[in-house]
Amino acid sequence: MSVNHLKSPEGRGRQRGAATLVIVMVLFFLVLLVAAYSARTLIFEQRTSANQYRSAQAYEAAQGGLEWALAMLNSNQRIDANCLPTQDPTFDTFRERYLAVEVDNDRVRPATTGVGRFAGCTRAQEGWRCTCPTADVASLTPEPTSTSAFIVAMRPWLSSTPAEPLRISSRACSSGNDQRCYAGGTSNSDATSLQSMQVALVPVVRQPPIAAITVLGEAIAPPATVLLVNRDAGSSALALHAGGGIVGTPTVVGLGGAPPEDAVRGNDTTMGGALRFFSRFAGVSQTTYRKMPGVSNFDCQGQPCDGALLAAAAAGSRMFYVVGDLTLPAGTTLGTPDKPVFLAVQGRLTLEGLNEINGLVYALGLAWVNAATASSIRGGVLVQDDCCAGVTGSASIVYDRDVLTRLQLSAGAYARVPGSWQDR
Hints:
Elements: H1 9-73, H2 94-98, E1 99-102, E2 107-110, E3 117-124, E4 127-131, E5 149-156, E6 166-173, E7 192-203, E8 211-215, E9 219-220, E10 227-229, E11 238-242, E12 246-247, E13 251-253, E14 264-265, H3 277-282, H4 286-291, E15 295-299, H5 306-314, E16 319-323, E17 326-328, E18 332-334, E19 341-352, E20 355-371, E21 376-383, E22 390-393, E23 396-399, H6 401-410, E24 412-416, E25 422-423
Parallel strand pairs: 8-11, 8-21, 9-12, 10-13, 10-23, 11-14, 15-16, 16-19, 17-19, 18-20, 19-20, 20-21, 20-22, 21-23
Antiparallel strand pairs: 1-2, 3-4, 3-5, 5-6, 6-7, 7-24, 7-25
């Protein structure tokens, strides 16, 4: 005989509790898997965000390095070893410190040697700090709060143009421990960015004159004690070049053995009109010139401004634009043969006594009152109206090709070459 053993209600309840426990444990395990995956994803996103932040930091620092280098190249202020403006005449401008003009080769090249890394900046808690030494910058010195940094370098770029373009590169790091930027760095695991661009000079002297003094209007010969000198055969050896007639016989010094009349040319109708006289030599209009970076502007209408102009020259400026008449007192020296100036006066320029100017002078009119024997303008003079009845004394106006070439290669504004930017 068979007997059916029926399960009690208590046994069935215990079985249902065990099944529930298994289900809960499985669900709990699944929740743990989801939480672990979410945490892993969160950690990944955090790392990705941190990497993106460091990458953006390095990218922006490299881009800022390029902009900083271009702005410094176009600055007309003398700077010290920390790239800060200074009035100390023993210092030079950023461009003069890091670019070398080769007159014989008709080009400009980086003055730095070796790796070509010439300046750099670090960002600390209180802001950016820069260094502009006279030697190469192999690496930067970190501070306790240093973060991002950049180092800029220059290389010449092969070109057939006289104002040879340059390639500026900027390497930036996002950490104060990165050995690619900082001295004593312990790693290179953080972000870095290397960007470069090509820059070229927009010169303020595109076509130098061919004579010691060039007059658009009529030229009245100054006294015999005033010498007009041009011994340069490559410039047509003209001492006086006029669009109008020449009244009187100027005292000229030309090529040896050549008659004095060969150094004088008048009634040259190819000079054009007054509107294009300035741009014929500068390559840009007066409006464009006065707005160029590095040009010091002065309003002398109804007030003397020689003091402000001389102060700007002492601070390192080499390009000037004056509205109104300008009088330079005795003892004035502007420019040197190695650092010539471009002085444009939209008015009458009056020189008194002993003056020495190296560079190119443009004015509507020119007067020189009782010029001392050692007084001279070396380079060239451009006079838009009639000249030169007001020139007296014993001055010399000397055509100097080297001075004009150096001015042509060094004076102007550097600008980006379109399409030359690179990011690595």
